[in-house]
Design brief:
Layout lengths: L16 E2 L13 E2 L50 E8 L7 E8 L12 E9 L2 E8 L3 H10 L7 H7 L1 E2 L6 E2 L3 E2 L6 E5 L4 E5 L6 E3 L6 E4 L26 E2 L16 E7 L8 E8 L4 E9 L13 E4 L3 E6 L6 H9 L4 H11 L7 E7 L17 E9 L3 E6 L7 E8 L38 E8 L4 E7 L8 E5 L7 H8 L14 E6 L9 H11 L14 E6 L4 E6 L5 E9 L11 E8 L13 E7 L9 E4 L11 E4 L22 H4 L2 H15 L9 H11 L1 H12 L7
Helix pairs in contact: 1-10, 3-4, 8-9
Length: 738
């Protein structure tokens, strides 16, 4: 490794971390060394405080074929690659860009709902002299079972094969008799205390993956530790959780629990639906005992149970946990129609839009005091846990993503949120569907989520005063950068993620992040009329108003931007026509600490359709590298490969060089690694018993003999001996105990 590529220094044995607990309007967000370690002997002689790429020029990128979504956005190569080279197409790859960027997303193909597709995980590896990528499909037990069930392994004939096979829905692929396929496809997330790398989803449990092979090996929690979103006897139950958990870094916990085993927070929830009232639970994974503790949320103002539409992201501060009810409403009528009549698309579409309801016009934040989260035997019960009070605040506009500054001086919580009031991911484009500009959805667009808002988005900086129970908000918009805000790269400069990743390697943050430098990196889909159904516009017309206010003809291009939290300022790069960008990820310079940890690069995946203007070896799917201090000049390097075909992706995280070697699920000390026993999790005797006794549990006063037809029908439809064979031969062997 080049001498220039040294993340250091390592901590001095006497080094200790301190944290500000009070301050002005915007508290400092990074720790400082009480006794700084001596400078690393291998530090480069250069005195430059900028990353190497700062001096590199921006590149001119020719436009793509046409405005709007490229066809490439809905194509993913089914081939899995290992250490495949990424070639420099144009520009220069900086030597101090090093480490690993993990990317999660759906393995998409036109005609299939993107967000319900199999999970795809990419690892982009950067080192002196080059870059490589590795890709893998996320295979869970229900994934392996599905292959056999769809092939007819459990069928007694055409009817049972039709009943058992999995059908495509917007939320997940669902079997009427077995339940949904669990598909982690949304976000990679590191669990510091267990040294595990998770991949998450909104419709299932997080799954841990091997950071080198990318193979999924254990879910977080046994099925019995989760509350089902639907009261069905399914072998693969529908579970709803948050795709972005929250964690408490180890050194911040003080004496509350073992410093090496921080807490992890997520949700277990179900929206209201025709046959159920719904519920919202906050869950903490006790990394000391590896158990899930549940608390059911109760509105502190009304005393009524909290029922959220969707909880895509949550955040933790020193004294509070914050949940965002987001723009991802679940319509069970729509999903039921998709599962029941897959051969009648017009019926599905009619049910979808007749039963659709708009997302909440404002973001709803629920705040829970950490001091109220006391564990007890009752919190281990996922179905009837104790209640905990949650305080409701609303502001800005609807949204999916936000971050919280860890410190909450004087009980004031600072949140930074991306607000897209009419972004509604509960729908997908359907072939032939009427669009807002009078065109029709083309076959190659089918399955893309309706992620383009029908109003301009904004960034919100919110301060929640928990003593006075008030919220104060500032909203910031920009015509180039806040049409269609989707995901942002949380560089760890807000929530401590980057700091935690460095700490696992023994590195420390030895400089405070200046308030004026606190920033988030975001991507925007812009506004493209060819991605907005007329029915979606009609659903949100009371909010949007007349079409004449929308840029239907000219549109707004996709972009990447940097939002400065303290000033509300935007800096960014507008992508050329015909290019779409996904998931920008901040990567600090490998010359840290000489270069401050908030300076470095932004790594982003982009797609366009092939044209003669593309460089040799480019498929139109590329990796672009930006100078984090000057996005506006454009990419300084473009990487690609004839084998790089990934399409739409979602979220990312960054691991410094060497950290992947530590993340094999082996906690510090003499502690057994966490691993769910899939044979126990999917015990066939328990599964069969649940199906046969299900009506009796729902109607306990009805004589058992009256349910004999149910038991006979279930035995015939499920074919338990064959299902047992599928689990034993095609599922269990893929998940040996560690």
């Amino acid at each position: 490794m080049s001498q220039r590529a040294c993340y250091g220094p390592r901590p001095h044995p006497d080094a200790a971390l301190t944290h500000p607990t009070s301050g002005g309007v915007m508290p400092e967000t990074e720790s400082v060394l009480k006794h700084p370690a001596p400078a690393a002997t291998e530090a480069p002689p250069s005195l430059s405080r900028e990353a190497d790429g700062h001096a590199l020029p921006g590149l001119h990128v020719p436009p793509g074929l046409r405005p709007g979504m490229p066809r490439n956005a809905m194509t993913t190569s089914p081939v899995e690659y290992v250490n495949e080279p990424l070639r420099v197409l144009v520009g220069t790859l900086p030597e101090d860009l090093q480490g690993h960027v993990y990317v999660a997303g759906p393995s998409v193909h036109a005609g299939s709902p993107a967000l319900a597709s199999d999970g795809l995980v990419l690892r982009l590896d950067f080192q002196v002299g080059g870059a490589r990528f590795t890709s893998a499909t996320m295979r869970t037990p229900s994934h392996y079972a599905r292959q056999q069930v769809d092939a007819g392994a459990t069928a007694r004939g055409p009817l049972t094969r039709l009943l058992n096979r999995f059908r495509k829905t917007t939320l997940a692929d669902v079997s009427l008799t077995l339940g949904p396929q669990e598909t982690p496809n949304t976000a990679p997330f590191l669990v510091e205390g267990e040294r595990m790398l998770l991949v998450t989803t909104d419709a299932g449990r997080p799954w841990a993956i091997h950071p080198k092979t990318l193979k999924a090996y254990t879910p977080l929690g046994y099925l019995r530790e989760w509350n089902r979103a639907l009261p069905t006897p399914w072998a693969f139950p529908l579970l709803q959780s948050t795709a972005h958990p929250a964690f408490d870094p180890a050194e911040r916990l003080g004496p509350r629990i073992n410093k090496d085993r921080p807490r992890l927070f997520f949700t277990n929830h179900a929206p209201k639906w025709p046959l159920g009232a719904g519920y919202t639970q906050l869950v903490s994974w006790d990394t000391e005992e590896n158990r899930l503790n549940h608390w059911k949320l109760m509105d502190a103002a009304t005393g009524e149970p909290v029922v959220a539409s969707s909880l895509h992201q949550i955040a933790a501060t020193r004294d509070y946990v914050v949940l965002l009810d987001s723009n991802f409403p679940i319509n069970f009528w729509q999903i039921a129609a998709q599962a029941a009549v897959p051969f009648l698309p017009r019926v599905q579409r009619a049910v979808e839009w007749l039963t659709a309801s708009p997302a909440a016009p404002q973001a709803v934040f629920w705040v829970v005091r950490r001091a109220d989260l006391q564990t007890s035997p009752g919190t281990l019960d996922p179905e009837n846990p104790p209640f905990v009070s949650a305080h409701r605040f609303q502001a800005g506009g609807g949204g999916l993503h936000f971050a919280a500054i860890y410190e909450n001086p004087d009980d004031v919580i600072t949140l930074v949120a991306a607000h897209s009031p009419t972004e509604d991911l509960s729908h997908t484009l359907q072939p032939g569907e009427l669009l807002i500009n009078g065109n029709r959805v083309q076959d190659w667009q089918a399955g893309m989520p309706t992620a383009v808002p029908v109003t301009r988005s904004s960034m919100g900086v919110h301060r929640i005063d928990m003593k006075r129970l008030r919220i104060q908000s500032n909203l910031y918009s920009h015509d180039d950068f806040t049409w269609g805000l989707t995901v942002f790269s949380n560089a760890g400069l807000v929530n401590g993620e980057l700091e935690a990743h460095f700490r696992l390697l023994g590195h420390v943050m030895n400089a405070k992040l200046p308030t004026k430098e606190l920033a988030l990196y975001l991507n925007s889909d812009g506004f493209t009329a060819d991605m907005v159904p007329e029915a979606l516009y009609q659903l949100y017309k009371p909010v949007v108003g007349d079409k004449s206010a929308l840029p239907i003809r000219d549109g707004r291009a996709a972009s990447f931007c940097k939002f400065f939290v303290d000033s509300g300022r935007f800096e960014g790069y507008v992508l050329p026509t015909g290019w779409f960008g996904f998931a920008p990820q901040f990567v600090p310079s490998a010359r840290f600490p000489q270069v401050p940890h908030w300076k470095g690069y932004v790594v982003a995946l982009v797609v366009s359709d092939p044209t003669p203007d593309l460089p040799e070896n480019s498929t139109g799917d590329e990796v672009w590298i930006f100078d984090s201090e000057d996005l506006a000049k454009g990419p300084i390097c473009r990487l690609g490969s004839r084998n790089f075909d990934v399409g739409m992706t979602l979220h990312t995280t960054f691991l410094p060089p060497g950290l992947a070697d530590l993340l094999e699920g082996q906690p510090p000390g003499n502690v057994a690694p966490y691993c769910v026993d899939v044979r126990q999790d999917l015990d066939m005797d328990a599964i069969e018993r649940t199906y046969l006794e299900w009506p009796q549990t729902m109607l306990p006063r009805v004589p058992r003999v009256l349910f004999a037809p149910w038991r006979l029908g279930v035995k015939w439809a499920l074919n338990f001996p064959k299902l047992r064979q599928v689990l034993q031969e095609d599922v269990y062997p893929h998940f040996p105990r560690k």
